[in-house]
Design brief:
Layout (H helix, E strand, L loop, with lengths): L2 H4 L6 H12 L8 H8 L3 H13 L3 E3 L6 E3 L1 H12 L3 H15 L3 E8 L2 E8 L14 E3 L4 H7 L4 H7 L16 H14 L2 E4 L6 E9 L5 E10 L8 H18 L5
Antiparallel strand pairs: 1-2, 3-4, 3-8, 4-5, 6-7, 7-8
Helix pairs in contact: 2-4, 3-4, 6-10
């Protein structure tokens, strides 16, 4: 559904026009009055009044060198305020609950600290035999789905200081322990947006994971579906990946990420 079709109820024309002026800057960093008037099909005097009002409140600011306008500091302050008030754990739980209902898997929501995964939420249909991921538990990043999903979208400095400067612990016979192999794995994750744990932290456990990215494209969180003891064979893995990406992309957008 298009954005225009989602708008309902009584609207004030001048406020709507002001909002559309701000949206014009999604395409161009700086615009003049003539540019905005052409984009919105309005006369220059109308646009000037709206732009002048937005500027006086800090939503726009004028560039001294060319007299054009750009987004103002007030929008930056409000944007940061919105991000600071987002409860990722609560929103992720709500958005991902259909995954727990649809698939014979445990849904994990995780973050990271000092090179380790920290599980912050866990959802499933009932009792689970998965022992590697109780809420609050830490785990190595290199052998978990959520861990690899986040590593693929963390800065190289983080990888160098927290991962590649130490021994990669072998948890099972399937754990990636060669650093060159892990780098190849992370590159593949960047291309697909999906990480897979193939019994790397716990035998019999297969996980499909994806990162949640912030406005800088850095992974702060990740979500996984963990299938124990052959349950992965009961589902269409490509469908799982599609459903998971819908959830993580929605949450990434909430954190300000834009492709």
């Amino acid at each position: 559904m298009k954005q225009e079709q989602r708008r309902r109820g009584v609207q004030v024309q001048s406020v709507a026009r002001a909002a559309e002026i701000i949206r014009c800057f999604l395409k161009e960093p700086e615009l003049g009055i003539s540019d905005i008037a052409a984009e919105m099909d309005l006369n220059k005097s109308t646009v000037f009044g709206l732009v002048n009002t937005l500027t006086s409140y800090g939503y726009l600011e004028q560039v001294e060198s060319n007299k054009k306008y750009r987004l103002g500091i007030t929008l930056f302050e409000l944007g940061n305020l919105v991000l600071s008030r987002i409860d990722v754990r609560s929103e992720a739980k709500e958005i991902c609950s259909p995954l727990a209902a649809k698939y014979p898997a445990t849904v994990h929501i995780a973050t990271h600290s000092e090179g380790e995964v920290i599980y912050i939420e866990k959802m499933d249909r009932g009792s689970t035999l998965i022992s590697a991921s109780n809420v609050g538990r830490r785990a190595p990043m290199h052998c978990t789905g959520v861990g690899k999903a986040m590593l693929a979208y963390l800065p190289e400095e983080y990888l160098a200081q927290r991962i590649f400067n130490r021994h990669l612990q072998r948890m099972t016979e399937h754990t990636i322990t060669r650093k060159s192999d892990l780098r190849k794995e992370l590159e593949n994750i960047r291309q697909t947006g999906i990480a897979v744990d193939r019994e790397e932290i716990e035998l019999g456990l297969t996980c499909i994971a994806a990162p949640i990215l912030n406005h800088n494209g850095v992974a702060e969180y990740a979500i996984s579906l963990s299938f124990p003891y052959g349950k992965i064979g009961e589902v269409d893995q490509e469908e799982v990946k599609r459903d998971l990406l819908v959830c993580t992309q929605t949450l990434s957008t909430r954190l300000g990420y834009r492709k």
